[in-house]
Amino acid sequence: MSAITFVAADVPFTDSGNTAWVLAAAALVLFMTPGLALFYGGMVRTKSVLNMMMMSFITMGTVGTVWILWGYSQTFGPDVAGGLVGNPFTHFGLKGVLDQIYGYVPADAAAGTAAAGGIPAPAFVAFQVVFAIIAVALVSGAIADRAKFSAWTVFTVVWATLVYFPAAHWVFAFSGYAAEKGGWIANKADGLLFGGAGAYDFAGGTAIHINAGAAGLALAIVLGKRIGFAKEPMRPHNLTLVMIGAGILWFGWFGFNAGSALGAGTQAAGVWVNTLAATCTAMLGWLLVEKFRDGHPTSLGAASGVVAGLVAITPACATVSPIGALIVGLVAGAGCALAVGLKFRFGFDDSLDVVGVHLVGGLIGTLLIGFLATKGSPTGAAGLDVTEGLFYGGGLSQLGAQALGAFVVLIFSFVVTYLIGLAIHKTMGFRVDQAQESQGVDLTEHAESAYDLSGLTGGRFGSGGAVSTSSPAKPAKTHEGASA
Question: Which positions make up the signal peptide (predicted)?
């Protein structure tokens, strides 16, 4: 007969089930960054594929490093500067973090978190770093085909430090999982202008997608338009890669959203279902717009609709019902399909529609919480309180809190990113010159080409650029990439 060990109610414990789920979810979210690389890489022209993919991959190296050094502490450390940022030195190098247990609530305390608790601090650190990585990588799609890789690499560190870490500190409210209860947007937006709860952003629609979309707009303005923008075709070179990337993003996003419950329970399961529901209707909404507007649905539209739905449901996945999730997805799919054309109307070159999908999709999902939040949601089913939206008898307070959080992050991200981009552009130069852009940034920035077609073209690469077979690392000077 095996012995039974009893643990006192006030002794912290590690919940192996919750820990396993959080670590698995972290791995799923990390897999999203290579998925994003495929998604973005397929959407650019042949001469820019590797550069585009490298812009995603390098963020894993740079942001992962600074997260361990100061990023975690800056995001989840104790408030400094009036709560605008966490103290980067409190947990510098993860000092004092590895032996902590998060999410444990003593038996005599009121339950303050959705998770069952017992999450070791390193699991929380791991889950949050992959969010930071992909948030930075998302921005790169706005400046495809024309950015210096060295400048982008510097930008990833500076932007993460000055924009993402502070915004995440404002938005995320993991009571019991960090040194502070949570940021002012999550907990205090109601105290500034409104009488209801703080803004809901369950998995990062504000901190990640609105943030990245606004940053993409700022960088697109700083770098200017690509050569031939709106005058010659710049079609995706490989839609197969785009659809594979979209599939990986959808797969990983279940870790992104359901993992944010930080426990394997009722809330995580409901969030999983809502994530699926919104993504399905978003794809249908995008394809319907294409059918009525253009006469035919496209594979690019299906993939883009999937991403739009995932973006929109990210902030709302825990506070809307499954029917609400279907509505969020449908509105986001149709709305983002219409929004991607804004760059031609207003004249900014957002290469891969970061603004149209992530900024607009993030705004749709964040603001619809003010209408669709309900106690019949995963959070309500988990026994936690939900301030209901307008369609469920709630007042304007929740919508006001959502709008305040969304637009504060939007404005903050745009202004600071513009200044960062301008500073890099004026010092080390952010954009390649015209000759390099015409030849292709794969060759000029990396001395590589994505496709070795020398066996079929008599010693030359195909439309992605020309390289002599005798010296594959030396860019040729005679061949431009194809416009398609």
Answer: none
